[in-house]
Design goal:
The complex is a heterodimer.
Chain A lengths: L1 H49 L9 H13 L1 H20 L5 H22 L9 H44 L3 H9 L8 H10 L5 H40 L6 H54 L3 H40 L8 H49 L15 H49 L2 H38 L6
Helix pairs in contact in A: 1-5, 2-3, 3-4, 3-5, 5-12, 6-9, 7-12, 8-9, 8-12, 9-10, 9-12, 9-13, 10-11, 10-13, 11-13, 12-13
Chain B lengths: L1 H20 L6 H17 L1 H7 L6 H5 L6 H25 L5 E7 L7 E8 L4 H12 L6 E6 L1
Parallel strand pairs in B: 2-3
Antiparallel strand pairs in B: 1-2
Helix pairs in contact in B: 1-2
Classes of the chains: A mainly alpha, B alpha+beta.
């Protein structure tokens, strides 16, 4: 009995040991296979991150999801991935607009995929040897990347659509009445309202551009040259007549008679010139009023955009500066600088009338006063707005970026564009802001071009006349004409200064407040 | 300004007339001297007025002449709130939760500012709680985000 019990005991022990060994080995085996899988998956992850064709951030969420799926429904998962990967690769080669061809190609690839998957799924997952597992993982990896790319692309197209819709809606809700009135008053070539223009720019149609600008400038030049020619010729004729009268008749009997003829000729020239000068002055005031209307239309909109885009400190800088430009500086120019210009021209004309009383020094004093007033306002304003605008926008930008960086850089990101800190609403505002700015700038440049060309051509004509008159006629004629032509260029600098101050504000806002999107 | 200009021009024109009409003689130079005096007086005359004048600029009025478009700001902030809510929804749905509620507290002022985002999710797992919070925080870095289970 003892023997039997011993044998049975030993058998039981051996059996137990055997069982233990089996269980140990089985556990070990599963451990080994698990570790191999894990290793491969880690390798995949590393490959995934350094995969050459992939140019975005690794989508950790997707990998997480896929990992989870491998253990549950391995077949379905690989099926899906390989299919989508192949589909994407093939359909990617076709052009976007050919949708029918694309869908047909997708069907073809589908059929191919089925046969490929039948081969790859013929064996059970656990019985893979290392080589096959690696191969399969390679396929899965590629498919994974393709899927990620495809979803990203899909998201991108969705984002583009959303962006377009957002910008459209925002444009519809924007109050553009003032700007529309201004735009229609310009009488440019376009027939539509300013909303149409802005939506054109949003679509990427920039109108005629540089060549159109030059074409218009050339036409304007031709027209104004023809328009000013009669005045210049008349001036030269009168001066010639005077020289013939005074020289060829070997002098008048009395010197006073000669003086009287001089005054008469001078008045005749003066009437011709001054009518043109008054036209120029009124044109300048009109242009400045036009620019003022544009400012009153645009500035509220730009200010709203700046605050919406998070420019808290910048809006507190821009708001007073915009006010100062739109009301203060424009008023100073209309009520001080332009009247001073008129005084200067009148003194210049009267001063060269008589030989006994000359107003040259007073004239030059008033001229320097006008010039320094204009340049002083201009330089102070431009330096101040550039300095303050840039620094304040940088402060805003940095405060936004640091806050973003502090949170974002340590968070794995799920959900594509939405979570990249890319706010579609803000991006639409950035787009709107820039297209509004573009439309204003281009139409403003077109509309100030005509008066500037007219003034420039007129002043050139006066210089030509004074040059021709100088050798044949009285010295005072040519001097008067030359001084006038010099004065008139002041009108050009007034228009350009106001325009430039306006454009600098627009350009600063266009270039600096893009932090919502970029 | 206008009166001054006209008077200066008038004085000079009268001078021209006098220059032509006056006969040459002894008194000529006295008349010319008096005339030059008159011209200087006419030119100088506005200077005392300038000194008396108080130069006043209503800077406050000028600086506040440009106002924001408040209607558009309100409209835009409403739209932004809607899109932010949609974003939060999409984030929570990414973690495969269906039943949840979102409450957002925000300022009504000119500036768009979210104070608090409270999300209550049915059957929330602990590991997702932190992930969702971080995810939402990455977009609303200035706001307090509270994620809790129902």
């Amino acid at each position: 009995m003892k023997k039997i019990t011993k044998i049975s005991k030993s058998i039981i022990i051996i059996f137990a040991i055997f069982l233990l060994a089996i269980s140990f080995f089985s556990i070990n085996y599963s451990k080994i296979s698990n570790s191999v899988e894990e290793k491969l998956q880690i390798q995949n992850l590393q490959k995934y991150q350094t995969y050459k064709n992939y140019d975005g951030k690794p989508n950790l969420g997707l990998i997480e999801k896929c990992k989870h799926l491998t253990f549950d429904r391995e077949e379905n998962w690989s099926n899906l991935l390989v299919k989508v990967g192949k589909l994407y690769k093939k359909s990617n080669e076709l052009k976007e607009d050919n949708l029918l061809q694309k869908s047909n190609a997708l069907k073809e690839v589908n059929a191919e995929n089925k046969s490929l998957l039948a081969v790859s799924n013929s064996k059970n997952f656990k019985s893979y040897n290392k080589f096959e597992l690696k191969n399969k993982n390679e396929i899965i990896l590629q498919a994974n990347i393709s899927v990620d790319k495809a979803t990203k692309e899909e998201e991108q197209s969705q984002a583009e659509k959303d962006l377009e819709n957002n910008t459209k809606e925002n444009l519809e809700n924007l109050d553009l009445n003032l700007l529309d009135q201004w735009f229609k008053g310009l009488n440019l070539n376009s027939n539509g309202s300013i909303k149409d223009e802005i939506s054109k720019v949003l679509k990427g149609e920039y109108g005629d551009g540089f060549s159109g600008f030059f074409k218009m400038a050339g036409q304007a030049f031709g027209k104004t040259i023809i328009g000013t020619m009669p005045t210049i010729i008349a001036i030269i004729c009168i001066a010639l007549l005077y020289s013939i009268l005074s020289n060829l008749t070997s002098g008048f009997a009395f010197s006073q008679t000669k003086e009287v003829t001089y005054y008469i000729c001078y008045c005749a020239i003066l009437i011709l010139v001054m009518t043109n000068v008054t036209i120029m002055v009124s044109k300048t005031t009109q242009t400045i009023m036009m620019i003022k209307d544009a400012m009153n239309g645009v500035f509220p909109i730009l200010l709203t955009f700046i605050t919406l885009l998070g420019g808290v400190s910048a809006s507190s800088v821009y708001k007073p500066m915009m006010g100062i430009l739109a009301t203060g500086i424009v008023n100073i120019i209309c009520n001080v600088v332009l009247p001073l210009f008129i005084v200067v021209t009148i003194f210049c004309v009267v001063g060269s009338l008589s030989k006994s009383i000359k107003l040259n020094k007073l004239c030059s004093f008033l001229k320097t006063l006008t010039k320094s007033l204009l340049t002083g306002i201009f330089s102070v304003f431009v330096t101040y707005i550039t300095f303050q605008g840039l620094t304040s926008s940088i402060v805003d930008n940095i405060s936004v970026k640091t806050a973003k960086f502090a949170v974002q850089s340590y968070v794995p990101i799920v959900g594509g564009y939405l979570s990249d800190g890319f706010d579609l609403m803000l991006a639409s505002i950035v787009l709107l802001k820039n297209s509004v700015g573009y439309v204003i700038m281009s139409s403003l440049l077109l509309s100030i071009m005509l008066p500037i060309i007219q003034i420039f051509v007129f002043s050139l004509g006066l210089r030509l006349a004074s040059g021709i008159i100088e050798p044949i006629s009285d010295e005072r004629f040519s001097k008067m004409l030359y001084d006038l032509s010099k004065n008139i260029t002041l009108l050009i600098s007034i228009i350009l200064a106001v325009t430039f101050m306006f454009l600098i504000i627009i350009m600063l806002t266009l270039t600096t407040f893009n932090m919502g999107a970029i | 300004m206008r009166g001054w200009l006209i008077s200066v021009v008038g004085v000079i024109l009268i001078g021209l007339l006098v220059d032509i009409i006056i006969p040459e003689g002894e008194t000529n130079k006295y008349i010319k001297g008096i005339y030059a005096l008159i011209v200087t007086i006419v030119i100088i005359s506005p200077l005392p007025k300038l000194a008396k004048n108080d130069w006043k600029f209503d800077i406050d009025m000028i600086e506040n002449s440009i106002e924001q478009d408040t209607e558009f700001t309100e409209y835009f902030n409403k739209q932004r709130l809607i899109s932010d809510k949609a974003f939060i929804q999409s984030v929570v749905k990414l973690y495969e939760y269906e039943n949840f509620e979102i409450e957002i507290e925000c300022d009504d002022g000119k500036e768009y500012k979210l104070n608090k985002i409270v999300i209550t999710i049915e059957g929330l797992k602990d590991k997702d709680k932190l992930a969702i919070t971080k995810q939402i925080k990455s977009n609303f870095y200035k706001t307090e985000v509270i994620v809790s289970a129902k």
